[in-house]
Amino acid sequence: MSAVADAELEPELEAELEARFEATVRRKDRIEPRDWMPEAYRKTLVRQVAQHAHSEIIGMQPEGAWIGRAPSLRRKAILLAKVQDEAGHGLYLYSATETLGVSRQELTEMLIGGRQKYSSIFNYPTLSYADMGTIGWLVDGAAICNQVPLCRTSFGPYGRAMIRICKEESFHQRQGYELLTTMMRGTDEQRAMVQESVNRFWWPSLMMFGPPDDASTNTAQSMAWGIKTHTNDELRQRFVDMTVPQAEVLGVTLPDPELAWNEERGSYDFGQPDWDEFWRVVKGDGPCNAQRVAHRKRAWDEGAWVREAALAFASRAGSAGLEDDVSDGTEAT
Amino acid sequence: MPDVRTHEPDDHDNAYAGLLVNDVHWAFGTDFEDPLAGVDATVPDGVEPAALATYCLMLGDDALVMSQRIAEWCSNAPDLEEDIALSNIALDLLGQARLLLARAAAADGAQVPALPDGSPVPDEDRLAYFRDVAQFRNVRLAEVPNGDFAQTVTRILLFSTWRLALFEELSRSRDAVLAAVAAKGVKELTYHRDFAGRWFLTLARGTADSRRRLLAGLDELWPLWAELFETHDVERAASGAGVGVDPAGLTADVDAVLDQVLAASGVDRPDHGPLGGAHGRRGRDGHHTGALGSLLEEMQVVARAHPRGQW
After folding, report:
1. B179-193 burial: b if 16+ Cβ within 10 Å, else e
2. Under a CB-based contact definition with an 8 Å cutoff, are residues B111 and B57 in contact?
3. What does the buried/exposed string (b/e) look like for A196-211 if buried means 16 or more CB atoms within 10 Å of the residue's CB?
4. Does residue B9 belong to any structural domain of this protein?
5. Whole-angstrom Cα distance, residue B33 to residue B37?
6. Interchain proximity A71–B303, CB inside 8 Å
7. Could B72 and A68 be called an inter-chain contact, meaning their C-beta atoms sit closer than 8 Å?
8. Are A145 and A242 a contacting pair, CB within 8 Å?
9. Looking at CA atoms only, how far is residue A8 from chain B in angstroms?
10. How many CB atoms are closer than 10 A to CB A276?
11. Number of domains into which chain B is organized
12. Are B25 and B16 in contact (CB under 8 A)?
């Protein structure tokens, strides 16, 4: 087809494609990578899935910092396996993003260049081993509340990645809660450590659902496209309702004096997080923003020579045949 | 395409609520399965329990210290695939260490550090967290600090080539526990050696820079290589009793494999000699480089602050 004919057909064709796209979303079917999609839909997905992938990769740092210090070999194995799972989640999600036409390398460069974001929760430090449990219970718990509805999101590769990720996140959450229950059965110092950790992570966990609905600029369009299926405030309420009974079983106090059961609504009333703090952290001024990005950048930069070596080796093995290459050591020396 | 829902919406959305109400939908249990379930743990006739325990500590400490070093790569590797692979290797070695430390404790409880009455710390953790540097029996190759990725690849190649040969023989141990641990470990170590061998070749034949780094890594670690084949009295006794392996007997097999990787990579064996010990004492005697002290300081800091803690 010539470019001229293409241009003449375009408005009519585009209208038809758009109608087909919208019908697919309405039927709750999946949009697949080779299907036509509005450019703004594609861009929104790249932003959201990449941000999610980056969150997994940056999220390795606050927990990774405690692998070396894990206080039992069993906990060390659990923590190392968990952080490894996060790298795996990052891989699935980068792959899902790549189906939208952006490479992992470009995405990584956008992350370390500060042009794409990750979940602000990881800009808070981990200060005790109890944080390994609290992150599992509250942070992974909040992530699950956010992510379970995403298993039904309209873009196929994203939704399918989320199904697997949610299963593993549920496992991590359970392990985190189990660490906290074990510590609560331990010494007074351990119980105090758990409470202190919960105090620090409660509000940032509530912030993980994003700003209140009236301040969320992306929600309405994302819901119309079937990318998002619940609002930030709905998910936050669900998280609070599920967490309060778990806190009671655990024996910790959630640090919110306004927290109270509302018989009429059948839900808990709760206080608002400090949204000024939220926006400061989002804009880059949280306790660990600079450290997290610098760590990622250092690892990426320090690995450059390894990636180059692998490419050089593969291209020579591919063009000359591996056997020939191996017998010829001149190029590398 | 059909609706992707596989559960009723409420059921599906309540994965989180299941934390307290049921266990059914969890993919796995929280505890790891016991890989030694059903294995006879009786110390075989004619074997000195204390010597068997010390021998298990040697092999267990090798794995524990090596695992601690490799785990330092987590979130620091050149790419995600390598991050995941290195974590895998660290996890496998940690698993081997746990089984071997537990075996040491079961064979001879006298070697397990005492803690305050009522401390719930299990034996494997007492051994890992409450022994001091001089009580660790690992070879020094496992403990020296990480360098770059090329040095790590080289260390894993040297360590896994040697340990795989050792475990192949150990899988025929008269001690049923050691035999089972070794049989499981052989599969893991085969993968570790493969990972390291492939990367060794890739870096040797990659760019001038990767080759230079690889040769530097090999040069740095080579002095620690000979120690792996020096027979300690405990190893000699364990080998004599049919429960352990004399590492001196592994030289030919290990050299054959290593020489194959070196030849494919166009790399010569470094010609400098082994790192000495003080008065002939080396890692197996509890004589270490300074690096082990700082490694243990980090590893043990939380556990030692809570000798009555439950984790």
Report:
1. bbbbebbbebbeebb
2. yes
3. bbbebbbbbbbbbbbb
4. no
5. 8
6. yes
7. yes
8. yes
9. 32
10. 8
11. 1
12. no
Q: Cα separation of B125 and B64, whole Å?
A: 11
Question: Does pLDDT of B1 surpass 80?
Answer: no
Q: How many CB atoms lie within 10 A of CB A185?
A: 12
Classify residue B282: in a domain, yes or no. yes
What DSSP line would sit under A115-137, residue for residue? SS---GGGGS---STHHHHHIII
CB contact under 8 A, A84 and B91: yes
* Chain-centroid distance, C-alpha B219: 22
In tens, the pLDDT along A18-76 reads 999 999 999 989 999 999 999 999 999 999 999 999 999 999 999 999 999 999 999 99
The HSE-up count of residue A9 (CA atoms within 13 Å, CB side) is: 9
Whether residue B258 lies inside any domain: the answer is: yes
Scored b (16 or more CB within 10 A) or e, B136-159 reads: bbbbbbbbbeeebbbbbbbbbbbb
CB neighbour list of residue B22: distance below 8 Å, 6 or more residues apart: none
Beta bridge partners of A31: A155
The reply to whether A154 touches chain B by the CB within 8 Å rule is: no
The CATH number given to whatever domain includes residue B85 is: 1.20.1260.10
State the best of B5, B11, B28, B79 to mutate against chain A, taking most chain A CBs within 10 Å.
B79
Residue B13 CB coordination number (10 Å): 20
CA separation for the pair B91, B93 (Å, rounded): 5
The DSSP bridge pattern shows strands A260-262 and A267-269 to be antiparallel
What phi and psi, each to the nearest 5 degrees, are found at residue B281?
-90, 135
Burial (CB < 10 A; 0-12, 13-18, 19+), residue B40, is exposed
Q: Does residue B7 lie within any of the structural domains?
A: no
Q: Using CB atoms, which residue from B12, B125, B206 is nearest to A309?
A: B206
Of all helices (H) and strands (E), which one includes residue B75?
A: none
Residue length, chain B? 311
pLDDT at residue B18 tops 70: no
Cβ within 8 Å, pair A72-B17: no
Average pLDDT over residues B252-267: 97
Q: Which residues of chain A have pLDDT under 70?
A: 1-9, 320-333
Question: Domain range spanning residue B297?
Answer: 17-305
pLDDT per position as a tens digit, A213-240: 988 877 788 888 888 888 999 999 999 9
Q: pTM for the full model?
A: 0.91
